[in-house]
Amino acid sequence: MEFQILVVDDEDIARENVVYMLNKEKHYHIESAADGEEAIALIEQNEYDLVLTDLKMKKKDGMQVLDTVKKLWPDTEVIIITGYATIDTAVNAMRQGAYYYLPKPVKIDELMALVVNALDKRKLTIEIKRLREQVSAQSGTGKIVGHCPATQLLKKSIEQVSHLDSNVLILGETGTGKELVAKVIHDLSARSNKRFVAFNCGAFTEELISSELFGHEKDSFTGASQMKKGLLEMADGGTVFFDEVGELSLSMQVKLLRFLQERKLMRVGGTKEIEVDVRILAATNKNLKEEAEAGTFRADLFYRLEVLTIKVPPLADRKEDIPLLLNHFLIKHTPKGMDPPKVSQQIIQSLMNYEFPGNIRELENIAQRLMLHVNEKVINPSTLQQDSPLASLPQTDNSEQQWPTLEEHEKQYILQVLDEVEGNKSQAAKILRIDRVSLWRKIKRYGLDKAD
């Protein structure tokens, strides 16, 4: 592991001496700043493992550097060096999170020992954090990353419905993580020691759906060389999750309704009814109530599925979770034996300004593209300029240049897609990988319906 260290001192000789000594260690990457203002600008863009800063400096002093570090990167260690050591300032620095307060003149051996100890603590903190994330991710609602109010409400709803044994309808836009919610409900339920089976209703023809769900007897159709149990039968005692349930044909809706009413099934080509005990979870990005009123979805099936309802919020309503989610996906996709890449604060801010039409799935795709730069010390806006899929993210910096917002980028992109498909909203929704309802909402938000 290569440690990133920032040395801050407005005395050139003192700063250069410390940098020279630290550079003798091959696994240290050293950067320096000639004053507190320059240091804060660097800290706003990059995460360091350790910051060594002088206390008394013009413009911005060491305490302001410490304050910035702890606000942006709480786990970064800070050592304050000063020729004006007092007990009060030392106590104040330690209270604000400094690792150590070292008086001048600095003894090199003492400083190097402090650096080693501070970095050992930093490494231990990272390991503990990773272990906690792994343990948390393996149990219950800990699998759902985030702490914002919308996420907390989602977790509470999951906990409330999981202990009941009723059917649950999970509502949410494409890419919001509806299948993950279903898995967590199963994990927290009394059926957790039995199978969880997921079935995508929009991925098969009607004949295949019947065979996959209900199974078939030998020789019931061409190619059926042996008896096969269906997913419902194999999940006996557990949970079955119907993803995109709104895509089922009306005839398949009748068959599913019959099963829900009787809890019995008959294999394709069979004559014997088989009792099956499963809990049904279903998900959709459609408004099934409106579909039922329009006659494209059976009202009786809708009410059977909608015993309990959970709404999964879009990522646009969970923006505070974006840094945590991004870190989660970077760790997930980092090759074994490597450290996940560090991402500058500017990129994180750009992501938080984005509306994410593809929701969490889109954020994970972005994280995977960032992995192309895993060997770089810090991924920053200049990196994005070399990566066309990410280049449209606006770069936030301290200059006066006015960047277009990502909402403006999204509006222009939607307009471009609509123009390409000559206004066909169904085709546009498929290209954008969102459902028609989400597309209509964005069209109205940006006033694009008035532009038709």
Characterize the structure shown.
The chain is of the alpha/beta class and 452 residues long. The protein has 4 domains: 3-135, Rossmann fold (3-Layer(aba) Sandwich), CATH 3.40.50; 141-313, P-loop containing nucleotide triphosphate hydrolases (Rossmann fold), CATH 3.40.50.300; 316-403, Orthogonal Bundle (Helicase, Ruva Protein, domain 3), CATH 1.10.8; 407-445, Arc Repressor Mutant, subunit A (Orthogonal Bundle). Helices cover 45% and strands 14% of the residues. The protein has helices at residues 12-22, 36-45, 62-72, 87-95, 108-137, 149-162, 178-188, 206-214, 231-234, 250-262, 288-294, 299-305, 322-333, 345-352, 359-370, 381-384, 406-420, 425-432, 436-445; strands at 3-8, 28-33, 50-54, 77-82, 100-103, 168-171, 196-200, 215-216, 228-229, 239-243, 264-265, 274-275, 279-284, 308-311, 342-343, 378-379. The strands form 5 sheets. The protein has a 5-stranded parallel beta sheet with strand order 2-1-3-4-5, sandwiched between helices. A 5-stranded parallel beta sheet has the order 7-10-13-6-14. A hairpin with an 8-residue loop joins strand 11 (264-265) and strand 12. Helix 2 runs parallel beside helix 3 and helix 17 packs across helix 18. The two termini are 56 Å apart. The model is unreliable at 396-404 (pLDDT under 50).
List its salient traits.
Helicase, Ruva Protein, domain 3; Rossmann fold; 16 strands; 19 helices; five-stranded parallel beta sheet; alpha/beta; elongated; 4 domains; 452 residues
